[in-house]
């Protein structure tokens, strides 16, 4: 059960970061470095989710 909860928490965090990236990209004057950092975090989460799901 703890494994499933951890995986779901990762998925929720991935969605939150994804939403934040989309919002940041629509905002005028957003720092490109900040967006790139968020995208790297999103990718890291996605890779962890994929690794744990396999």
How does this structure look, described?
The chain has 54 residues and is mainly alpha-helical. It has one domain (2-53). Helix content is 87%, strand content 0%. The protein is built from two helices and no strands. It has helices at 2-26, 32-53. α1 runs antiparallel to α2. It is elongated. The chain starts with a helix and ends with a helix. The relative contact order is 0.18. The mean pLDDT is 94.
Topology:
Elements: H1 2-26, H2 32-53
Helix pairs in contact: 1-2
Brief overview:
The chain is mainly α and 54 residues long. 87% of the residues lie in helices and 0% in strands.
Keywords:
single chain; 54 residues; mainly alpha; 2 helices; 0% strand
Give the biggest beta sheet: none
Structural class: mainly alpha
Q: What's the number of extended β-strand segments? A: 0
Percentage of residues in DSSP E strands:
under 5%
Number of helices: 2
Mean residue pLDDT: 94
As a whole number of angstroms, the C-alpha radius of gyration is 13 Å
Shape: elongated
| Order of SSEs | HH
Counted up, domains total: 1
Helix content: over 70%
Low-confidence stretches: none
């Amino acid at each position: 059960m703890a494994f499933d909860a951890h995986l779901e928490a990762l998925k929720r965090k991935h969605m939150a970061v994804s939403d934040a990236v989309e919002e940041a990209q629509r905002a005028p004057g957003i720092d490109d470095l900040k967006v790139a950092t968020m995208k790297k975090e999103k990718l890291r989460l996605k890779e962890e989710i994929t690794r744990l799901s396999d």
